[in-house]
C-alpha cells in the first residue's frame, strides 16, 4: 500500500488556484492525497464529487509516492463502504472557520485517508500528514 501526494503543477487556472490555496493554508507543497491499493487510487476528490477509486497516472511528475503502513484490507473495506459519499466542502472550510459542523457522510481527501487508516481526528488531517518522517525533500 502506498500514498500518493499531489505536488502539481495543476493543469488549468481553477485547479492552479485551488492547489495554491491548499498549499498556502497547510504550509505544504501538497494539495491532495490518494491511497494506492492494488493500482487503484482511493480518495475523496472535489473533481470527482466525493469518495471514489480510480486509476491515475502517478508517473506524470505531479505526484510523490511513498509506502505507508496500515491495514490494507481494512482501508479498502472503508473506501468500499463509503464509495460515492459526497465531497466535504465544509470540512475544507473548517480549517479557516473551525465552528463549522463536522459532517459524518462527507469527506475531503486527507480526512478520508486518515479515517480509512484508523487515525484519530481524521477531520484535522492534511495531505502533508502522510509524508514519511524520514523523507527529506
Question: What's the SSE blueprint?
Answer:
Blueprint: E1 2-6, H1 13-26, E2 32-37, E3 40-45, E4 50-54, E5 63-67, H2 72-82, E6 86-87, H3 89-93, E7 106-107, H4 109-116
Helix pairs in contact: 2-4
Summarize the structure in words.
The chain has 137 residues and is α+β, with helices and mostly antiparallel strands. It has one domain (2-130). The protein is 28% helix and 23% strand. It is built from four helices and seven strands, in the order βαββββαβαβα. The strands form two sheets. Strands 4-3-2-1-5 form a five-stranded antiparallel β-sheet. Strands 6-7 form a two-stranded parallel sheet. Helix 3 (89-93) links the parallel strand 6 (86-87) and strand 7. The two termini are 21 Å apart.
Key structural traits:
137 residues; alpha+beta; two-stranded parallel sheet; 7 strands; 28% helix
Biggest sheet architecture:
5 strands, antiparallel
Q: How many strands in all?
A: 7
Structural class, judged by helices and strands? alpha+beta
Please tally the helical runs, counting DSSP H or I stretches of 4 or more residues.
4
As residue ranges, the low-confidence spans are none
Mean pLDDT: 92
- Could you spell the SSE succession in H and E letters? EHEEEEHEHEH
Name the quaternary structure.
single chain
Count of the domains: 1
Largest sheet strand order: 4-3-2-1-5
- What is the CA-CA span between the terminal residues? 21 Å
